[in-house]
């Protein structure tokens, strides 16, 4: 009984800490105003810490499978597990695609904010936050692979979390790039793809 609640509290805590450190990691231009050029490596550290907390939440998902909360909620879906796996794969393929293509087009900026980095091309000419879309959706396949109704419901938490990180990042990108970013923002979709009209 104790393990279930400890795991749940760690899950919630890690989710909140992921949000906190990831928002800090996408704000190097704002931080630079306070501490100078060291803001960029510091934001890289924040992003690594955020990734660590994201990894902990994945472990919590797996622990939950073995130690679910005693909520009276149906533990698994009423259909065969293979159905959950197939639905998870259908969701996983486009989310992984968006993440991989977004990482490729963003280059090293995916992990390491660089002051001299220019605006991205590729998929970023269709949607401004492809990696965030892919990552927010990717939690549902994990929950489906574990066949857990509770984890699928919990996965909805990641949608506003990644929305908040995108808003925070946009605020910083306006400071970093100024007018070119405002022009880019006007012609490219935020989370809904929109063909760029250069």
What does this protein look like?
With 198 residues, this protein is mostly helical. The protein has a single domain, classed as Four Helix Bundle (Hemerythrin (Met), subunit A) (Up-down Bundle). The chain contains eight helices and no strands. Helix 4 runs antiparallel to helix 5 (130-145) and helix 5 runs antiparallel to helix 7. It is globular. The protein starts with a helix and ends in an 11-residue tail after the last helix.
Q: What is the CATH topology assignment? A: Four Helix Bundle (Hemerythrin (Met), subunit A)
As a whole number of angstroms, the C-alpha radius of gyration is 18 Å
Strand content: under 5%
How many extended strands? Answer: 0
Mean pLDDT: 89
Encode the helix/strand succession as letters: HHHHHHHH
Total tally of structural domains: 1
Number of helices: 8
Overall spatial form: globular
Distance between the termini: 58 Å
Estimate percent helicity. Answer: 55-70%
What is the structural class?
mainly alpha
Q: Can you name the CATH architecture?
A: Up-down Bundle
CATH level 1 name: Mainly Alpha
User: What composes the largest sheet?
Assistant: none
Low-confidence stretches: none
């Amino acid at each position: 009984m104790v393990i279930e609640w400890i795991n749940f509290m760690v899950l919630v805590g890690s989710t909140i800490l992921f949000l906190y450190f990831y928002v800090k990691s996408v704000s190097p231009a704002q931080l630079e105003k306070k501490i100078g050029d060291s803001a960029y490596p510091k934001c890289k550290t924040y992003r690594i810490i955020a990734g660590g907390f994201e990894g902990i939440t994945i472990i919590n998902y797996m622990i939950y499978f073995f130690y679910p909360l005693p909520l009276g909620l149906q533990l698994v879906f009423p259909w065969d597990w293979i159905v959950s796996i197939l639905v998870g794969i259908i969701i996983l393929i486009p989310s992984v695609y968006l993440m991989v293509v977004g990482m490729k087009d963003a280059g090293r900026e995916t992990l390491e904010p660089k002051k001299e980095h220019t605006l991205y091309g590729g998929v970023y000419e269709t949607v401004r936050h492809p990696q965030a879309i892919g990552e927010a959706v990717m939690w549902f396949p994990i929950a489906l692979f574990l066949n857990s109704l509770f984890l699928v419901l919990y996965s909805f938490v990641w949608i506003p979390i990644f929305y908040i990180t995108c808003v925070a990042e946009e605020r910083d990108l306006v400071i970093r790039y100024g007018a070119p970013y405002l022009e880019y923002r006007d012609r490219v979709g935020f989370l809904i793809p929109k063909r760029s009209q250069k």
